[in-house]
Amino acid sequence: MGVVEFEDVFVKYETYTGGVLALRGVTFSLGEKEALLIMGPSGSGKTTILKAILGLVQPLHGSVRVFGTEPNDEKRALEVRRKIGYLTQEGTMIKELTVWENALFYARGRRKSLDEESVRKLAERLNIGTVLDKHPNQLSGGELKRAELLMVLSDNPELLLLDEPTSMLDAENAETVVEILNEIKGRIPMIITSHDPKLVELSDQTLKIVGGNLVEENGH
Ligand SMILES: Nc1ncnc2c1ncn2[C@@H]1O[C@H](COP(=O)(O)OP(=O)(O)OP(=O)(O)O)[C@@H](O)[C@H]1O
Ligand SMILES: [Mg+2]
């Protein structure tokens, strides 16, 4: 059984004008040691797949299983969410807190503790050793992206969902992120959405989604 299993999943967002069918029969599974890359144009449903895994949206039809359970009520969704490191596309840091305080707050919300030494080491690796005591609005876009990544990696998640982890980064910093993901790969299963060709090499499986339909699959 996979860590994540989608079986013919349809997701609809309700809107004033009727609704948007964002996923139209998506089926895939993520193995325990796998890195899966999801590619596809803007608006094709990539982020929606991640939200369905987190139980933030419920399928209209089909089933989503994560760690063998369906995150279909708030209690289960919370249990599932605590195990997942989710790097959002837009960022989730609280602007009143420093980066370090954000990481602490994030970990405590998930009932985990942080090892300051290893968080500092990871920050150095990500080339943001000096930002831990800064507030998110004092960082550049690329620094903020890496600080968000630091936060979601710092409390040892059991599954990683990374929404465009290398966007906003220059080539060198993108390379560092890919290197770190390569080190983690095989230890923590991960689903990455991206257009970055560097991440194709990293992944064991690539899915392409267009208009809510999976159109291509490649094992590497
Ligand atoms: N909360 C929402 N309410 C209504 N429609 C939504 C909502 N969130 C997403 N959508 C629509 O669902 C579709 C899929 O959106 P999604 O965010 O999954 O795309 P994406 O592939 O992640 O795009 P991008 O590459 O731009 O991040 C789009 O048509 C989008 O407009
Ligand atoms: Mg998206």
From TrEMBL:
<keyword id="KW-0067">ATP-binding</keyword>
<keyword id="KW-0547">Nucleotide-binding</keyword>
<dbReference type="InterPro" id="IPR027417">
    <property type="entry name" value="P-loop_NTPase"/>
</dbReference>
<dbReference type="GO" id="GO:0022857">
    <property type="term" value="F:transmembrane transporter activity"/>
</dbReference>
<dbReference type="GO" id="GO:0005524">
    <property type="term" value="F:ATP binding"/>
</dbReference>
<dbReference type="GO" id="GO:0005886">
    <property type="term" value="C:plasma membrane"/>
</dbReference>
<dbReference type="InterPro" id="IPR003593">
    <property type="entry name" value="AAA+_ATPase"/>
</dbReference>
<dbReference type="InterPro" id="IPR003439">
    <property type="entry name" value="ABC_transporter-like_ATP-bd"/>
</dbReference>
<dbReference type="GO" id="GO:0016887">
    <property type="term" value="F:ATP hydrolysis activity"/>
</dbReference>
<protein>
    <submittedName>
        <fullName>Molybdenum ABC transporter ATP-binding protein</fullName>
    </submittedName>
</protein>
<dbReference type="InterPro" id="IPR017871">
    <property type="entry name" value="ABC_transporter-like_CS"/>
</dbReference>
<dbReference type="Pfam" id="PF00005">
    <property type="entry name" value="ABC_tran"/>
</dbReference>
<feature type="domain" description="ABC transporter">
    <location>
        <begin position="4"/>
        <end position="220"/>
    </location>
</feature>
<dbReference type="InterPro" id="IPR015854">
    <property type="entry name" value="ABC_transpr_LolD-like"/>
</dbReference>
